[in-house]
Amino acid sequence: MANEAKPSPCDIGDKFVHEGCGEEVQVEHIKAYVCKPSVKSDKAVIVIHDIFGWRLPNTRYMADLLTANGFIAICPDFFVGQEPWNPSDDWASFNDWLKTRHSSKIDKEMDVVVKYLQEQCGAKKIGVVGFCWGGAAVHHVMLKNPHLKAGVSNYGVIRLFEDGCNLLHPTFFIFAEKDDHIPLEQASFLPDQKLKEKCKVHYEVKIYPGQTHGFVHRKREDINPEDKRYIEEGRRDMLNWLKKYV
């Protein structure tokens, strides 16, 4: 998604070399990656992966970043054992693949993970962060789940929730100016008059200049000086939103 040299809008981009600081656990019927800070914390963040699944090193890097900032972080397998998308797969089959993995069909798994964080990890406040497929999932749970405190949606597919104005919790939406997968006309749905009239909680929509889909978690910081600025800014904005509301 972040590699401009490839024509596919959901290309893998830069796959980080990152082993992770946490551990894999079984949470009822779900496998998950969990990372805990060295100092006890009662604040947790659920990390919702993109189409490349819960084992993508980039996503675990984001979970570890959250933990480095004081949060318990958990990245569950929201595909629940189904295979993630592989960059070598035929893009002509993508829509059929996606039909069995809709980002609004995660409520059962969210309830299981929230219960685990509360009962096994001592979490009292829980936020959520998602990327691409997971960004759309964040939008969904911000409309539905009363147990969460805040969310950050990174380049989620807005057209999936075109009536999604009644947010329950403070939500930050991150978009990329040069995103071929989510054009700006889709992103512009969010700050329109309907959202301004209906949304009763704090929300923010931010578009990062010159960036492409996946820039927060799939671009190397050293790709070029201009990108580095916005990659770091996006991550900083994500953390600041969670620190403020979770």
UniProtKB/TrEMBL annotation:
Pfam families: DLH. It comes from the Eukaryota. InterPro entries: AB_hydrolase_fold (IPR029058), CMBL (IPR042946), Dienelactn_hydro (IPR002925). Keywords: Cytoplasm. Residues 30-245 form the Dienelactone hydrolase domain. GO terms for cellular component: cytosol. The keyword Ligase does not apply. It is found in: Cytoplasm, Cytosol. The keyword Cytoplasm applies. One of its GO terms (molecular function) is hydrolase activity. Belongs to the dienelactone hydrolase family. This is Carboxymethylenebutenolidase homolog.
